[in-house]
Every structure is written in structure tokens, then in C-alpha cells.
Design goal:
Oligomer: single chain
Low-confidence stretches: 286-294
CATH class of the largest domain: Alpha Beta
Number of domains: 2
Order of helices and strands: EEEEHEEHHEHHHEEHEHEHEEE
CATH topology of the largest domain: Cytidine Deaminase, domain 2
Structural class: alpha/beta
CATH architecture of the largest domain: 3-Layer(aba) Sandwich
Amino acid sequence: MGRITTLRPVSRVTLGEGARRRADTLAVEEPLEIRIGGTPLAVTMRTPGHDVELALGFLVSEGVITDRSDLRSAIHCGGPGTGGGENTYNVLDAILSPGVRLPGADEARRFYTTSSCGVCGKASIDAVRTISHHGVADDDVVVDAEWISGLPDRLRAGQAAFAKTGGLHAAGLFDAETGEQLVVREDVGRHNAVDKVVGWALQDGRLPLRSTVLQVSGRASFELVQKAVMAGIPILSAVSAPSSLAAELAHESGLTLVGFVRGRSMNVYAHEQRVRIDAVAPGAAFAPDGRVAR
């Protein structure tokens, strides 16, 4: 159950020295089918482990549930063709509490995802602009830019599987008031890593995640901004670039989006009022809505 890494034989080639056979550690990627009350809802390619958190985080990001009271149970069950007997640990069934609306058939058909894209299969951009029950616009938390600059290293220190494989994304949740690292999760899919963090928070009764910062190991895509907003996270920080749509959604929703957090520098793409800086370069003026003033 829950294999995170596996060994595979490879030919290690060094120019000028030839090749030699050796074992290499790879991140495991397997499908997880998420069901609700026995009915298939979604399939995502993921790294096994923390599957319940992954499923719950996915349901939060899609607006199916908003609180742990919306869920009665979630358990692995037998996969297709097993007759319900053999547990493959690649199928997870969630039972919602009475009164919680079940996703419709049209919604379920759009919920197929892969490890590289958290919104593949969505009918349109409008369909993924899910209305959050945990708004972030009124969260007045403020953090030091100096503190944000140290988050990528703290995240990397918690990536045990990445150290072995070099092939996993990570997401870490930090308390902006105390500086505490609350949780770190890894997965072959960047959106899965975030779902695992959100699912952990749901199980722990922490939603909405006010006064927190979500640090991710890669780029800030649209779906990561959406997931942060749906969980009530006011600040999303990434070591790489955001997409234009991610920056647009962050601006519209009130989320502070920080990218290219590397060493002593970073770019703040939306709602920079939450990032406290020691000095502002001459001529760097911002309009009240967070856009650069011309």
C-alpha cells in the first residue's frame, strides 16, 4: 500500500566514460479513482500516499464539500474487475453527509484529471471559476518579504521523496502569524500535492485557512490559485512563474500571488499589500488595486 518510490534499472551515460548499468529511484505514478457513494467521479494520476487527503482536497477545490462535517467517511475499496474483494488501494470511496448535494452527471464527466493538469476536461474557463465558500479578499494578514524568501528552502527540507527521485512536486502550508510549518505533501502532480495539503486541513478542522501561506515547488498555475482560494488561503508563493490566467484569478479573488521566489528576490503579481518590504525601489509605484501605476 502507498508505494511512493520504486527502483528501475537504467544505463547511466557519462560522456567520455561510456555507460554503466545501475538502479535508479523513480517516483511512483498510479491512477486513483475517486468515487462518491460508490459512483465514479474522477480519476487522477498521483503518487500513492495520503490518498484520503488527496480526495478530500479535490472535493473542496471543486466545491463539493466545504467542511469536515460534509463528509461521513472515506475509505479505499476494491477496484474495477475485482468483484469488490481485492483492495488495490487505487480506488477511494467517499460518503457524503445527509443533505450535501451530490455532483451531477455533467460535472462528473468533466472531472477527469492527469498529473500535469488539474483542470483537464473542464468544459470552459467559466466552469473552473468555482465560487468559494471561503473568501480571501478580507484576510488582512501581512508577512515580511524576508520570511517569504526562506520558504522554498524550508519546503525543500521537507521533501524526503524528492531527495531520492528528483521527480516530485511539493506543497507546504505555513502559519503566517507564528511562522510554523504546518504540513508538507509531495506528489508527481503539483495540483495533487496542494489537494493533499487542503485535505489534511479539512480533516484537522482548519478550513478556512486564514492567515496562512501556501508555498509550492513549481509554477503557479490557474488551478493552484483556484485551490488556494477555495481553501481560504490568502497568499500563494511559488518558486517559478505564474500563468496570466493565474494572475488574473488572483487579482479578481483577492489572493496575494508571489512568483519567482528565488534567493533574495521575488515578484508579487497581485495584492502586494500583504507583503511587507524594507525598501521600495525609486519609481516603483502601485495603484490601490495592486496593478502597477503608469
